[in-house]
């Protein structure tokens, strides 16, 4: 019990940890609002207010987050030209997403003219989608490389249990990343090109929770 509490404290001390918790609040309240909208209108209104408040607080908390993508670009990640290009495209998309998300937040809270909200939301979601696509491609490439390396170690039958364990853990983390990025891509597509599937409350709610909980898993302190 004490170990779990200690890990929770460490988790919530991270910016990403707080973001995933509040994101859980945001999308649980979205689903609650949809479920009780006709039967319990008062509860639905409270859930809607919680959803909006959570969404706005997440945007405020992400202030300056675009610098993360810029820093990744500055460091030029990747060991090969092709993979480096994927990393540049992915981080550029993420940087655009967070940068214009600041202006969307300012428009939503009335600091700048609200007429810009739709435009800022579209640009932010477009950059977000581009980033997610290339992050997913990069992760699949690294997962494939990991599988090849694991097979090679198993064939050689050397004392490589620790190495195999690291490869498998990395694969799990990357699969969690893929799940989160695809879920967030669905949410972004709902903004870029509204359609009955992506814009359905259940689709958005489940996608948001998948993203939040995959991120929760990735950021949860390890046992080591």
TrEMBL record:
Keywords: Membrane, Peroxisome, Peroxisome biogenesis, Transmembrane, Transmembrane helix
UniProt key word RNA-binding: no
GO terms for MF: identical protein binding
Presence of the UniProt keyword Ribosomal protein in the record: no
Pfam families in UniProt: PEX11
Any coiled-coil regions, as ranges: none
Gene Ontology BP term (one): peroxisome fission
Transmembrane segments: 83-100, 120-143
Cellular location(s): Peroxisome membrane
Bilayer disposition of the protein: Multi-pass membrane protein
InterPro entries in UniProt: PEX11 (IPR008733)
Primary location recorded for the protein, binned into one broad class: membrane
Any one Gene Ontology cellular component term annotated for this protein: peroxisomal membrane
PANTHER family in the cross-refs: PEROXISOMAL BIOGENESIS FACTOR 11 (PTHR12652), PEROXISOMAL MEMBRANE PROTEIN 11B (PTHR12652:SF17)
Function noted in UniProt: Involved in peroxisomal proliferation. Promotes peroxisomal duplication, aggregation or elongation without fission.
Protein name listed in UniProt: Peroxisomal membrane protein 11-4
Organism: Solanum lycopersicum
Gene designation per UniProt: LOC101259820
């Amino acid at each position: 019990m004490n170990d779990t509490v200690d890990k929770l404290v460490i988790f919530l001390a991270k910016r990403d940890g707080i973001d995933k918790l509040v994101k859980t609040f945001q999308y649980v309240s979205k689903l609650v609002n949809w479920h009780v909208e006709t039967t319990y209108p008062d509860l639905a209104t409270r859930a809607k207010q919680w959803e909006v408040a959570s969404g706005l607080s997440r945007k405020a908390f992400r202030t300056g987050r675009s610098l993360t993508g810029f820093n990744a670009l500055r460091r030029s990640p990747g060991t090969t030209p092709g993979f480096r290009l994927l990393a540049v495209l992915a981080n550029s998309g993420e940087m655009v997403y967070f940068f214009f998300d600041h202006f969307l937040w300012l428009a939503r809270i009335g600091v700048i003219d609200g007429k810009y909200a739709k435009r800022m939301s579209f640009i932010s979601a477009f950059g977000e989608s581009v980033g997610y696509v290339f992050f997913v491609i990069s992760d699949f490439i690294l997962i494939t490389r990991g599988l090849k390396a694991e097979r090679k170690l198993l064939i050689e039958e050397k004392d490589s249990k620790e190495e195999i364990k690291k490869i498998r853990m990395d694969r799990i983390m990357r699969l969690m990343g893929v799940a989160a990025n695809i879920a967030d891509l669905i949410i972004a597509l709902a903004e870029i090109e509204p359609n009955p599937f992506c814009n359905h409350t259940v689709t958005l709610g489940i996608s948001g929770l998948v993203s939040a909980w995959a991120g929760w898993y990735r950021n949860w302190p390890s046992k080591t």
